[in-house]
Specification:
alpha+beta, five-stranded antiparallel β-sheet, about 30% strand
Amino acid sequence: GGDDLRRAALDDPARFASARLRAGAEPLPARAVIADAFIRFVTCRQALTPAFASGPFDALDAVETARLRDGWELHLVLRGDGLDDDFDGLPLRDPDLSALDPAARRDALQDAVLDAWPSLAGQLDANGDLPRPPGHPPGLDPTAIFLARVFVAVGAGNPPERTGAVIVDNWGRRILPHLGLLAGALGAGL
């Protein structure tokens, strides 16, 4: 609704932009509606086939899924003023390893990769759900992946009206390169 749009129109959009977007040639608007794009995997039932009833059911017309198909959902989530100033909305940053010598850098990188999984594995809630990653909106599946942040330039009035082009910040998400490219970027031969 209109209230959500008003709350998502922020006067300092640069604090939610990635470093690459802030340093780019295209200037950010003074005021923008900010939305995050998330993608989520879903399975889609494609066909039903007759089956024996299971459990306490006594039915002659029981059916079950015959085929599943992979699908996806794209969520565009408005970013309001609910994010505090200490969190820029981007995923957690990894430590800077550039000052380490190549052997120590390689060891620190391998330790960071291997230590990353247990931090989420033991934190399931009472329902067995994963915890929300930082910046993940409440109510959205925690397995949804952040794709990009969208900035829509708006004027100073309320309700906000679009005044400029849409800017897509594709550099705020985490990208995992293959090992050879990563080793080359870090200066460590593997």
